[in-house]
Specification:
The complex is a heterodimer of chains A (708) and B (227).
Chain A (H helix, E strand, L loop, with lengths): L1 H10 L6 H42 L3 E5 L1 H5 L1 H4 L14 H6 L32 H11 L7 E19 L12 E14 L7 H4 L5 H14 L16 H14 E8 L4 E2 L8 E11 L2 E8 L5 H10 L3 E10 L2 E5 L5 E3 L6 E4 L4 E5 L1 H6 L7 E8 L2 E8 L3 E8 L10 E3 L2 E3 L2 E2 L3 E7 H5 L7 E9 L4 E14 L10 E4 L1 H10 L10 E6 L6 H15 L5 E5 L7 H39 L1 H9 L4 H32 L1 H12 L6 H4 L9 H27 L3 H7 L3
Parallel strand pairs in A: 3-22, 7-11, 19-21
Antiparallel strand pairs in A: 1-23, 1-24, 2-3, 2-20, 2-23, 4-12, 4-15, 5-11, 6-7, 6-8, 8-9, 9-10, 12-13, 13-14, 16-17, 18-19, 20-21
Helix pairs in contact in A: 1-17, 2-15, 2-17, 2-20, 6-14, 15-17, 15-20, 16-21, 17-20
Chain B lengths: L8 E12 L5 E12 L3 E6 L5 H8 L7 E6 L2 E2 L5 H7 L1 E4 L11 H11 L6 H13 L15 H13 L5 E5 L7 H14 L5 E6 L2 H6 L2 E6 L2 E4 L1
Parallel strand pairs in B: 3-8, 3-9, 6-7, 7-8
Antiparallel strand pairs in B: 1-2, 1-4, 4-5, 9-10
Chain lengths: 708, 227
C-alpha cells in the first residue's frame, strides 16, 4: 500500500532528519516502558485477584443460598420440633434435603401446632412446599453452567485446643536420643464443613514440608512410647501392627530422598566408622573429661558448632579426631594426642541433608518408626560413612510425593473427591488455615475441639479429638485466620448443640459450585427467577462471592482499585503518546516539500492524512509490541526480580501473607488487550492533528518556495 | 493542426481571476482565457513576477483561481476530482525538479503509478525502465536521486511526469537551472511528447524555446496576449 510504504520510509532513521529520529526513538522507548509497566502490573494484580478469589471460593463457593428469617419462622422449618417422626428436633438443610417427608407432622398424635406460627405454605396441590428440595431442584434446572453442583454448608464456632510436642535440641552432653518439649495452643475458631469435591481446593492447600513429615513420624513414634504420652492419652497406645500399616501407607505416598540428623545429633554406629579419617570435631566435657564428640559435616563449621554449645552453657573443646583402623585418637589444641575409649559416642550433627534411600525390607519388619532403615553414603569431611543405618536420631530433609495428584498423604483422593481422614487414635482430621502453621503447628499435631452443650441443669463441656491433616491458604478474608475445615458430621454435631436462637442465618445454607467464576451473576439471576416461579423467593437469599458479608468490602476495594489503576494507566499512556504528536508535527514540517510533490502527482489529501496516521500508529504499535515482549520476559522471571529487589531493599518486598509465596507470573490477556487497544487508539488520535496539518499543506506554496 | 481532423480541446480556461490579499492586495491575473487543443504546445512567456508560474499552477490544478472555470480533457475541474486529474491526465516538470530524495530514480518515476495503486510488479518496473530509457537514463535507474546531475534529475522528473501516460504536460521553466546543452536535450524531449492527443503547456522566459512551440502567449499586465 502506497501510504504505508511512504510512512515506513519516513520512520527509518536518517541523519538528515535527526530530530525526528531521536523523538520517534524516545517515543517508542517511552511507550514500550509504559506498556511494559502496565502489562506487568495488571498481570500481577490480576493474578493476585484471581488467587484471592480462588481461595475465597475454595472456602465457600461462587454462589451461596442462605435461608432468610422467614425460613426459620416458617411452619416448614419449625414443624420438626413438634413432630414425633423428626425426633422433636429441628433439622439442618442437609437433613431436610435427605428427609423423605416434606411434612412430618401427624395431627393424630403430635402436639397441636401453636397458633402463633405462620400458616403452612402450600402448593397448588394443597401440599406443603418442600423449601429445601425446591431450592435444590432450582439449582439443578440451571443449564449451560459447567461443573454445577449444590452442596449444603454449615458453619459454627468452637474452641480448638492443640497439643504441640517437639523434639528438643541438644542441651546436655548426655542427652543422646533427645527429649521432647510440650506446649499447647488454644484458639476460638469458626468451623466450616469441608467440601470434598471443590475443584479449587487443591490450589489452596499448602504444600507439605519436611517438618510436617517429621512431626507425623514423631507422633507415630511417641504413640507407642508411654514416657512421651500425656496422661489422658496414655491409654491409647498404638498397637505395633497399626504403626506398621501407617508406615507402609506413609512410604507408599512419600519417597524420602535426603535425611539430616535430628537437632540433638546422630550417634555414628561403630561398625560404620571409616578405616581412616581425620575430622575436625568438638568434644563435650564434663569435669574435664570428654564424654561426647560432635562431628560437623564440614570441617569449617567446627568453630560455629563450638560457639553454639558454649552458648548452651556446655563446656567444649575443639580438636582433631583421628580414626585409624578401629582406634580413635583425640588431638586437642595443646597437641597432646589421646586414645579415646570406645564408649565415648561420636555424634554427627548436620544442618543440610545427605542422600538416603529407604531399605524396603526394614519396613516390613519395623514395629517402631525408629526401626526403619536407610541406605546412606554420608560424606563427612572427606571420608564416607556408608551402610545401612536405623532412622533413630535422624530426620527427613527432603522428599518427593510419589503421586503428583496427591496433595498430602493424609488427604486422600477418591473419584476426584478429597476425603479428610479420621481414625480412632488421632481422631478427626481437620484443615487449619495458614496462620496456625505460622504459629508453629505442624501436620500430625493432635488436639481437641471443645464445645458446650446445655442440658437442663448444667452446661456440659464436650470434646472431639482432632488432628492436623493439612493447612490451607484462606487468602485475604478477614475471618480466614480462624476458619477451620472439618468433616460435615463434626460441624453438624457442634452446631446442633447450640441454642436454636444462636443459629444465625449465615450458619447454614447451600453452596453452589461451578467451574467458571464469571458465571456467578448468571447463576444468581437464574436462581432468583426460579425461586420466584416456585414462590419460595422470600425464604432464600442468593449471593455471589462478591456480596458475602466478609468479602464485600475487599471485592469492592479490588474493583475500585482496578478502575483507578486503569484511569492512571490511560493517563500515563496519554502522556507517553503525546510525544508522537510533537514528533509527527516536526515530521510534517520536514516533509512539507515532499507532501507538495506527492500532491502534485495526484495523492489525495486522504492519502497524506493516512501516511501520517500510519506513522503515528506504527510508533504506537512498535512501542507496544516491544513493551509486551519485555513484559512477557519480565513476567517469566518476575520472582527472580522480586528477590533481587528484596535483596536491595534489605527486607521482603511483598509480604507472603498477602501475596503468596510467589507473585503470579501469568500474562493477563485482558490487560494485554486493554493496553494494546488503548495505546493504538491514543497513538492514532495523536496522529490526527499532525495529519490534518499535513493535508492542509498547499502544493502550490511548497513547490514554489523551494522552486524558483 | 490538420484541418481535416477536428481538433479536440484538451484544456479550456475561462475568465480566470487571481488576486492575493496578503500581505498586500495584489491583482495577479485578470480575465484569462486559454484554449489548448491536442497536438499543440503552448508557451507562456512574460517578465519575472508577472504571475506566469501562478497561472501555470492554476491551469495545472495545483492552485485555486479566485474566479473562473477550468476544464481539462472534458472534465470540469472541481475539488473532488483534482487529485485524480493530476494523477491521470497531467504531468508536471518543475524548474527545480522536485524529486523525492529518499527514493531511487526508478522509484521516483513509478511514484504516480503507486499513487494510482497499480500493482508493483515486473511489468510496472519494465514500464519505468522504458520511460527512463526514453530519457536516456536506463543505466541510472537504481541510483539515488541525490547522486544525479541537474540535467539527469530533470530527465528523471520528465520520465516521472510521463508515468501514467498523461494528456498534458505542464512545464515551469524546465531548463531554468540547466546549462544550454542540457537544456536543449530537455526541450527536445518535451517537444517529442506532443503528439496528436497530447499537449504541452510551458512557462519560460526563453524566447528560443517559445519559438519552438506551436502557440505563444505573453502574460503582460495581468492578461494573456497571444503573440
Amino acid at each position: 500500500m502506497f501510504e504505508f510504504s511512504v510512512a515506513c520510509k519516513y520512520l527509518i532513521p536518517r541523519r538528515r532528519q535527526l530530530s525526528v529520529s531521536i523523538i520517534s526513538l524516545v517515543s517508542i522507548l517511552v511507550i514500550s516502558l509504559v506498556v511494559w509497566l502496565i502489562v506487568v502490573f495488571f498481570s500481577v494484580t490480576d493474578g493476585l485477584e484471581k488467587n484471592w478469589v480462588q481461595k475465597l471460593t475454595a472456602l465457600t463457593a461462587p454462589v451461596r443460598i442462605t435461608p432468610t428469617p422467614a425460613y426459620y419462622n416458617s411452619y416448614y422449618y419449625q414443624i420438626d420440633s413438634i413432630s414425633e417422626s423428626s425426633d422433636y428436633s429441628l433439622k439442618t438443610i442437609q437433613e431436610k434435603n435427605e428427609s423423605e417427608l416434606s411434612d412430618p407432622y401427624e395431627s393424630e398424635y403430635d402436639q397441636e401446632v401453636p397458633d402463633f406460627w405462620p400458616l403452612p405454605d402450600l402448593n397448588a396441590e394443597g401440599q406443603l412446599k418442600d423449601l429445601v428440595q425446591l431450592a435444590y431442584t432450582s439449582v439443578n434446572e440451571i443449564k449451560n453452567v459447567k461443573g454445577l453442583k449444590a452442596q449444603s454448608f454449615e458453619l459454627t464456632a468452637s474452641h480448638i485446643h492443640l497439643h504441640l510436642q517437639r523434639k528438643a535440641p541438644l542441651t546436655h552432653p548426655t542427652n543422646f536420643y533427645g527429649t521432647s518439649t510440650q506446649s499447647s495452643l488454644s484458639y476460638p475458631a469458626y468451623i466450616g464443613n469441608f467440601v470434598n469435591d471443590n475443584p479449587s481446593l487443591k490450589q489452596t492447600l499448602l504444600p507439605l514440608r519436611a517438618e510436617d513429615l517429621n512431626n507425623y513420624l514423631n507422633t507415630l513414634e511417641w504413640a507407642n512410647d508411654p514416657q512421651h504420652q500425656e496422661q489422658e492419652q496414655s491409654k491409647k497406645l498404638l498397637k505395633p501392627h497399626t504403626i506398621q500399616e501407617r508406615l507402609s501407607d506413609f512410604f507408599q505416598a512419600v519417597k524420602i530422598t535426603q535425611l539430616k540428623t535430628a537437632s540433638f545429633g546422630w550417634t555414628i554406629p561403630q561398625h560404620l566408622l571409616p578405616l581412616k579419617a581425620t575430622w575436625k570435631a568438638c568434644a563435650l566435657l564434663k569435669d574435664q573429661k570428654i564424654i561426647r564428640i560432635i562431628v560437623p559435616l564440614e570441617g569449617k563449621d567446627n568453630p560455629k558448632l563450638a560457639n553454639y554449645f558454649e552458648n548452651q552453657n556446655l563446656s567444649v573443646a575443639l580438636g582433631l579426631l583421628t580414626i585409624n583402623e578401629g582406634q580413635i585418637f583425640w588431638t586437642d589444641p595443646s597437641h597432646s594426642s589421646d586414645l579415646l575409649s570406645a564408649n565415648i559416642p561420636l555424634t554427627l550433627l548436620t544442618t543440610s541433608g545427605f542422600s538416603a534411600e529407604l531399605d524396603k525390607e526394614s519396613l516390613t519388619s519395623a514395629k517402631r518408626v525408629e526401626e526403619i532403615a536407610f541406605q546412606v553414603n554420608i560424606p563427612v569431611q572427606g571420608s564416607f560413612i556408608q551402610g545401612l543405618i536405623p532412622y533413630r536420631g535422624l530426620e527427613i530433609a527432603n522428599f518427593q510425593l510419589l503421586d503428583d495428584q496427591n496433595v498430602s498423604p493424609w488427604i486422600h483422593q477418591s473419584e476426584g473427591n478429597y476425603i479428610l481422614p479420621h481414625n480412632n487414635y488421632q481422631g478427626e482430621g481437620i484443615l487449619l488455615p495458614k496462620s496456625f502453621r505460622e504459629a508453629g503447628v505442624l501436620i500430625g499435631d493432635m488436639g481437641t475441639l471443645v464445645y458446650y452443650s446445655p442440658t437442663a441443669s448444667i452446661l456440659q463441656e464436650q470434646f472431639i479429638p482432632v488432628y492436623t491433616a493439612g493447612f490451607y491458604d484462606p487468602g485475604i478474608i478477614p475471618i480466614g485466620g480462624k476458619f477451620i475445615l472439618a468433616n460435615q458430621n463434626v460441624v453438624s454435631l457442634i452446631r446442633s448443640s447450640y441454642q436454636q436462637e444462636d443459629k444465625t442465618a449465615s450458619s447454614n445454607g447451600i453452596n453452589i459450585q461451578f467451574d467458571n467464576l464469571d458465571q456467578a451473576n448468571l447463576v444468581k439471576t437464574h436462581l432468583i427467577e426460579a425461586f420466584k416461579n416456585k414462590g419460595i423467593n422470600r425464604y432464600w437469599d442468593v449471593q455471589t462471592y462478591r456480596e458475602y458479608d466478609f468479602t464485600k468490602e475487599i471485592m469492592q476495594e479490588l474493583q475500585s482499585q482496578k478502575y483507578l489503576f486503569m484511569l492512571i494507566a490511560i493517563v500515563i499512556i496519554l502522556v507517553a503518546c503525546s510525544n508522537i504528536i510533537s514528533m509527527l508535527i516536526i515530521l510534517v514540517n520536514d516533509k512539507k516539500h515532499e507532501i507538495g510533490i506527492l500532491r502534485a502527482m495526484g495523492a489525495t489529501s486522504k492519502s497524506i492524512c493516512l501516511i501520517f496516521g500510519f506513522a503515528g500508529a506504527a510508533i504506537g504499535i512498535f512501542g507496544s509490541v516491544l513493551g509486551i515482549t519485555l513484559a512477557i520476559f519480565t513476567l517469566a522471571h518476575i520472582n527472580t526480580l522480586v528477590r533481587l529487589l528484596s535483596l536491595m531493599q534489605g527486607h521482603e518486598m511483598f509480604s507472603s501473607n498477602l501475596y503468596g509465596h510467589a507473585l503470579p507470573s501469568e500474562l493477563s490477556y485482558e490487560a494485554l488487550l486493554f493496553v494494546l487497544f488503548s495505546t493504538i487508539l491514543i497513538s492514532l488520535l495523536a496522529g490526527i492533528v499532525p495529519a490534518v496539518k499535513a493535508c492542509l499543506v498547499r502544493p502550490s506554496t511548497t513547490l514554489r518556495s523551494s522552486g524558483g | 493542426m490538420d484541418a481535416k481532423q477536428p481538433q479536440r480541446i484538451l484544456l479550456k480556461a475561462e475568465n480566470i481571476y487571481k488576486s492575493y490579499h496578503h500581505p498586500l492586495y495584489v491583482e495577479l491575473l485578470q480575465n484569462i482565457n486559454l484554449e489548448v487543443f491536442d497536438g499543440e504546445s503552448a508557451a507562456i512567456v512574460g517578465r519575472s513576477g508577472e504571475g506566469k508560474s501562478t497561472l501555470l499552477q492554476i491551469l495545472g490544478t495545483l492552485e485555486d483561481a479566485c474566479k473562473g472555470s477550468l476544464t481539462i480533457a472534458n472534465h470540469p475541474v472541481s475539488n473532488a476530482n483534482k487529485s485524480l486529474i493530476r494523477n491521470q491526465l497531467i504531468g508536471f516538470v518543475f524548474q527545480s525538479f522536485h524529486l523525492l530524495e529518499d527514493y531511487s530514480a526508478l522509484e521516483n518515476v513509478l511514484m504516480p503509478a503507486k499513487i494510482a495503486r497499480q500493482k508493483f510488479d515486473k511489468s510496472l518496473q519494465e514500464h519505468g525502465l522504458n520511460l527512463l530509457e526514453q530519457v536516456g537514463l536506463a543505466d541510472r535507474a537504481h541510483f539515488s536521486t541525490k547522486l544525479l546531475s541537474g540535467g539527469e534529475k530533470q530527465r528523471v522528473a520528465l520520465a516521472r511526469a510521463l508515468c501514467n501516460n498523461p494528456r498534458i504536460i505542464f512545464a515551469d521553466e524546465p531548463s531554468g537551472n540547466l546549462d544550454s546543452h542540457t537544456a536543449e536535450i530537455i526541450h527536445q524531449l518535451l517537444l517529442n511528447f506532443v503528439q496528436k492527443d497530447k499537449a504541452l503547456i510551458l512557462v519560460t522566459h526563453d524566447w528560443d524555446l517559445a519559438k519552438l512551440c506551436t502557440k505563444r502567449y505573453e502574460l503582460k499586465k495581468q492578461t494573456l496576449i497571444s503573440c
